[in-house]
Amino acid sequence: MAEVRLDSVIKYYDNVLAVDDVSLTMKDGDFVALLGPSGCGKTTTLNLIAGLIEISDGEIWIGDRDVTDLDPKDRDIAMVFQNYALYPTKTVYGNLAFPLQMRKASKDQIDERVRRTAEMLSISHLLERRPRELSGGQQQRVALGRALVRDPRVFLMDEPLSNLDAKLRVQMRAELKRFHQDLNATMIYVTHDQLEAMTMADNIAVMSDGRVQQYGPPEEIFYDPANLFVAGFIGSPAMNFLYGEVVVEGGVTSVKGDEGWEYPLTPENAQKASHATNGRIIIGARPANFILSREEAPGLIPGSIYTVEPTGDSTFVHITIGEQIFVAITDPFFRADPDDPIWIDLEDERIHVFDEGTEEVLRVDGLNSQSQHGRRTLQPA
What we know:
The chain has about 375 residues and is α+β, with helices and mostly antiparallel strands. The protein contains nine helices and 20 strands.
């Protein structure tokens, strides 16, 4: 296996900038997810690593080799595609054997590696079947086996679970994660599904507009988002954003919301807010960090119940504040009627403060280590 390094990688399609100066170091043996919405550049980045499309500028290294100008066959990588790309006329054995036949391996070598791979993936009993006779999960295992049988330095996977039903996706997530742990393989995995990225990856590169917005372990991405985009993209239900102006009266720093509410800030959050470029901030609070009260009290944000969704082990409470709807997660026994008044407190130590002008997170020291959006080599903490 090998480290993969991207140095200032750029890709243009005519005048469209698809990948914008991406620099990443993906360590040997890491499972890295490229995560983002459609059109963010994640699949293009994967295809650049694979050599399937031509790079516009920058360098790509696999291990100690500069592979920027090498053909895909010379990069020692294996890809697993969204549609599996199995040969319909070949048996499972034939599909697994084909990459080795192309490399002119001996018949004995092919047979030994095909059967060893099939045993590892629990598909030995399927070797004589053809793809049309397999379930979606079985086809996914064969596609994975065809990549594994070559023993590549890097596995590249482009949304390989997106064609499976929800139950099978959960099962295959666990199997892929165990597969990575057993092999200690370097894997780069493209997905738009944050749950896939959060549950499987060692590190996540969150992408938007062709740039890496943040790179780090899942828990860092979730608990310490670098900017408004990352904060809003990661988490389900999504983070709530409250916009307002920073005001200081009588030595107390508060946020005066656009809807007329006023919320006092703790000294630590007040220090963060003091770095706002235009005196306006955005408070980010996850639904679980809303504290609901049926009683009015000073410093609480007033709202009204929009609807209540019991989910079994918790309840989603949709709350109207002004013209916006926010979501709180509370205990499973909470009930309320539409338009009932409700007041909101926040878990102050868990909220995030963003600069409304730059949309960057504000920190106590005023610095944001992730603010360059991938314009330098990003490495996970």
